[in-house]
Amino acid sequence: MRYGFFGEAGGLLSAVKKFHRETPLSVSKQEIALEEIGDALWYLAAFTRRIGVGLDKVGEMALLHLQKRLGISKVERFGKGIRFSQIDGLIAFQIDHMTDDFGKLLYELAESTSGLFENFSAASEELSSDANVELYAKLLELLALVAASNGLKMTSVSTANLQKIESRWRRDDAPYGPYFDEDDLEHEQLPRELEIEFIERTVNGRLFVVQRWRGVNIGDPLTDNRLEQDDYRFHDVFHLAYVAHLGWSPVIRGLLKLKRKSRSTVDENEDGARAMIIEEGIATWIFNHARDKGEFFKDVKEGKLEYALLKQVQSMVAGYEVDNCPLWQWERAILDGFQVFRLLRKDRCGIVKVNMHDHTITYVPQKAQS
């Protein structure tokens, strides 16, 4: 946890540096601060749970620190039940009188963070000492001030971080959302149960994959489109995984001729060429990443897929209906898709079954055809 907080504080410093050096177009300084401070706050809350003190005591001490820093002569003692809104309100009331600039606050945060490692002994950690509580209060105070310097409130930071956690890691009782085409005409809905046959064939020395649905070939025969063969020709399994876990795939809609023509706006924007290109781009980008990192996510367990990868995917689908899906659904779609891909890659053919009701994608072996 110490390493984690140190990393988040360092990430904030590094992000500010990169922002000034590169001025990224896709993210604002405030967005950077929102995420980095939120993650640091998560670790700080974890510290308080670990030492059995509770965030209220740390919050009360942080409020006392803030009163002193802001020059409030009458120091008020607070009872139990400290809220982030109290910290936000105190800073907002005195923010015009603050003399510390953003740079100085970052220096203080870096210095105080190093205190997590002073006199540290792995054999005997006096986690619940008064010195540690004092340090955690100082860190909370500085996080709140850095947030305010970026026009943020700790209430917003904490809420955003909780939403991020719920999106990334599924709660046991978290439901899937309704189907995107639930209210559309039946003949424009994705099949709730679907079987696609994948067959690899060799013609004139070239390998390609054909797909059949209900005994009819769909789409064009696929090759790897790459000098060094990597079996990308089986990649439509990823689109089927998106159907299973996200209820979304403009590519599969196109292949099965299930575009929502009765709603022209949806047909043009959600099921149109741009949406299909984005989906293909996501599948290709993740495939290259999985191939180059080794074994196509073979040993990656649920909950362990890189957050940066999932966040990038989410940014790519921003503005489309699938943007409503949490990151844990994307993770399931990606990992299950690659599990089936690895089996297809091994057997060179097979049947892929999708069940949208159960949110599953499974593989059934089939005898190879010449």
Q: Give the strand order, joined by hyphens, for the main sheet.
A: 3-2-1-4-5
> What is the count of β-strands?
5
* Secondary structure: helix percent: 40-55%
Q: Distance N terminus to C terminus?
A: 56 Å
- Reading the helices and strands in chain order gives HHHHHHHEEEHHHHHHEE
- Please outline the major beta sheet: 5 strands, antiparallel
Shape: elongated
Radius of gyration: 26 Å
Number of domains: 2
Organism: Undibacterium curvum
Domain MazG C-terminal: 178-366
Protein name: MazG C-terminal domain-containing protein
Characterise the protein shown here.
The protein has helices at 2-22, 29-51, 55-69, 84-94, 102-114, 130-149, 154-168, 236-246, 250-255, 264-269, 273-293, 307-316, 327-347; strands at residues 193-203, 206-213, 216-222, 349-355, 360-364. The protein has 370 residues and is an alpha+beta fold. It folds into 2 domains: 2-168, no CATH class; 186-364, no CATH class. Strand 2 (206-213) and strand 3 (216-222) form a beta hairpin. Helix 3 runs parallel beside helix 4, helix 5 runs antiparallel to helix 6 (130-149) and helix 8 (236-246) runs antiparallel to helix 13 (327-347). The mean pLDDT is 90. This is MazG C-terminal domain-containing protein. It comes from Undibacterium curvum. Residues 178-366 form the MazG C-terminal domain. InterPro entries: MazG_C.
Which labels suit this protein?
5 strands; 13 helices; 2 domains; 370 residues; elongated; alpha+beta
Helix and strand arrangement:
Elements: H1 2-22, H2 29-51, H3 55-69, H4 84-94, H5 102-114, H6 130-149, H7 154-168, E1 193-203, E2 206-213, E3 216-222, H8 236-246, H9 250-255, H10 264-269, H11 273-293, H12 307-316, H13 327-347, E4 349-355, E5 360-364
Antiparallel strand pairs: 1-2, 1-4, 2-3, 4-5
